[in-house]
Structure formats: C-alpha cells, structure tokens
Design a protein that fits this description.
Number of strands: 9
Structural class: alpha/beta
Order of helices and strands: HHEHHHEHEEEHEHEEHEHH
C-alpha cells in the first residue's frame, strides 16, 4: 500500500513546484528578457566570428517598392507590427519625447518632481491626482483611429497580420477593429482596471473608470477602498506575462517586421527588432531613423539593431515620413490605397454617428433627472 501513497506524494510535490514556478514567472519575465537579449548578442558575436548563419536576402530592393513587391509575391504571410506613440499623433494624442509638443514637455502644470514621476507606481500610490488629471485629457473614446491604425486592420483582414505589438495605451487599435488575440499591449491598456491592493485586485471595466475620471473622483475600490489603477504598465511594474510568452512563439515565424512611430528607446520592447530571423526584412516608417545598431558593432556585423546605410545592409528599409503618409504610400504600391481611404472614411462616419447617439442619450438622461443645464429652454410667452 506504500507505493500508491509515495506516488501521490511525489505528484503533489510536482504540482506545488509547478504552481510556484508559475507564480514567479511574472516577476522574472523582465530578467528573462534581459538574459535573452544578452544571449542574442552572444549568438550573433560567435556566428559572425565563425562565419556562420549567413542570411538570405529576401527583398529585391531596399525600398518601399521592394517591400510592396515582397508582400504581393504571396511569400509574406506572417507580418508583425511594432508600433508606438507616433501612430496616434495625427489623432491628436501627443507622443512622449518630442521637445516642444511631447507629453513630457508639457507636464509643468502638475507640479511633478520630474516628468516621468506621473507614470511611476510609487509616486502614483502617494499622489494619484496628477495621473488622473492627465488621464482626463487623454482618455480613450475622445479620439478616432488614424490611417495607420486602419492599415494594420487591413493587414488583418487580408490574413497577413500575425500580431500587432503596441506600446500605446490609447486603445485605438481596438477601436480600429483589432481584437485581443490580434494585440499585445506591451505597456498595458485602459481597457480594464484593477484595485492596487494585492489582497483584493478587484477588476473594473472601461465605463466604470471613465465615470470616475470625468466626475473628478479619484477611483477607489468598492470592496476595500484602495486606489484603482488602469491596467497600464507604470515604471516599476512588470510587463504583462503574455508579452513574453507570445514573443517566443511569434517572432521565429515572422516573415516581415513593420516598425512604426516608435523611437525604439524603451526596453524590452526595443529589443524585439532583434528577435526575428536573420533573413526577415524589417521596414521602419518613422519621422527619423531608429533602432540602429551601435556603429562599432555594426562594422563587425554584431548585434541585432537595424542597418539602413552600411555596405552590409541587406534587409532593413527606412521610410522617413509620418506614419499615415508611409502607410498610404505602401497601400498605394500594394494596390490598396482606395480601399484604405474608403475604410477610414466609413469608420470615422460610423464613430461620429455613434458619438452623437451617445451624447443625445446622455442629454436625455440628464433632462429626465431634472438637470437644468441640459433642459431645453422654454419659449417666451407672446406679449
């Protein structure tokens, strides 16, 4: 009778070890990403030194035309998009780092010790007011997706999009028609919120948070009265576990990487450009070149950064323009321009119509409650 009990005990120990490993996985994900980046560098170093792993040249020309011909060839079926704040600026949402118009350059009114404090978790827990004041200005639902957002949606509709990895928290990818499975929101999202208490972690949805923010109320948990924070990643917090698990399966299969509207300065997101195969073409659509390898390492063919201009360049294309103009230019070369412009036009009409209906409903609701500001003025009596 002892053998079954020993087997059962062993099984229970294995289950406990598995559960413990799963609990620790979130905490160790950033360390793992850093380790993977170092390993990528070492692999590249040794393969270059030994003359191994020579890459196949896929594009017939290092230009937007070359990328378009590759997409139209039918050989490109797993496109990954990496996007940042630059794809949302034409919607009216500021980016972070532009010297005069960027978000960090215009935070003086919040009396912060330094601009980044508004997104630091320790500062937020003590002083949540600046973040929620900013959230009121930038809240999802006040902006419409851009041409670039709808270009990514077209890639999905045509069966070419493997995944969109976004640094943005504005949820415009979702508004444009991408669903949860299509997206990796690397820096989190306003779509859901949670109580910050580890003992509670009650979840709240977008409409609940919106009502709190626009009523000038600091969101507090209905269960334990702790702060409630949108599920965006603050400095001092780990990226979502799904970022790391999806990264491992997506990037080895990628056959075209399109990078748009990001300076590629924030890790571990910036390191994603080096996770595709050596043969995978990479297109950057941005106002300036980004993600380039260190010049000294580039001379030796080390590292996984972008290489647009050296004699060894064979797969990286930089199209310097706004993200919308770049997507229109690529759509034109693909024969999709008219379809893209029609999609943007119809979707913006739909969103405007929906907004009018919602505002009309809110006005009727306020009038029914006797709100004098929303009631229609009575006609003057004839004299």
């Amino acid at each position: 009778m002892s053998k079954p009990s020993e087997h059962q005990e062993k099984q229970e120990q294995e289950e406990e070890a598995t559960a413990e490993a799963e609990e620790q996985s979130d905490d160790s994900s950033e360390d793992e990403a850093a380790g993977n980046t170092e390993m990528d560098f070492l692999r590249s170093l040794f393969s270059s030194a030994l003359g191994l792993g020579s890459a196949e040249k896929v594009l017939d020309e290092l230009s937007l035309d070359g990328v378009a011909r590759y997409i139209n060839s039918g050989k490109c079926k797993n496109i990954i998009c990496l996007v940042g704040a630059g794809i949302s600026t034409s919607a009216g949402i500021p980016d972070f780092r532009s010297p005069d118009t960027g978000l960090y350059a215009n935070l003086q009114k919040y009396n912060l010790p330094y601009p980044e404090a508004i997104f630091q978790i320790d500062y937020f827990k003590k002083h949540p007011e600046p973040f929620f004041a900013l959230a009121r200005e930038l809240y999802p639902g006040q902006f419409k997706p851009t041409i670039c957002h709808y270009f990514i949606k077209m890639l999905k509709d045509k069966g070419l999009l493997r995944r969109c990895y976004t640094q943005n928290i504005d949820t415009l990818e979702r508004v444009a028609g991408l669903e949860g499975e299509d997206l990796i929101e690397a820096h989190g999202t306003f779509h859901t919120s949670h109580c910050v208490s580890f003992c509670c972690r009650k979840e709240y949805h977008l409409d609940w948070m919106k009502e709190k923010i626009f009523s000038d109320t600091i969101p507090k948990c209905e269960k334990c009265s702790s702060l409630v924070k949108p599920d965006i990643v603050f400095f001092g917090e780990n990226l979502p576990a799904r970022f790391f698990t999806s990264m491992k399966s997506d990037f080895p299969r990628c056959d075209l990487l399109i990078v748009m509207g990001t300076s590629l300065q924030v890790q571990p997101f910036a390191g994603l450009v080096s996770r595709v195969s050596k043969s995978c073409p990479r297109l950057l659509i941005n106002m300036e070149k980004a993600g380039e390898a260190d010049p000294m390492l580039g001379l030796l063919s080390f590292g996984g950064g972008m290489d647009f201009d050296s004699d060894k360049a064979y797969r990286d294309v930089a199209h310097i323009s706004t993200c919308d103009d770049g997507c229109l230019a690529l759509a034109d070369l693909l024969g999709w321009k008219a379809e893209l412009e029609e999609l943007v036009k119809n979707e913006h009409i739909r969103i405007d119509s929906q907004d009018r209906k919602e505002k009309a409903g809110e006005s009727k609701g306020a009038a029914a409650k006797g709100d004098p500001a929303s009631a229609e003025p009575k006609p003057k009596a004839e004299e």
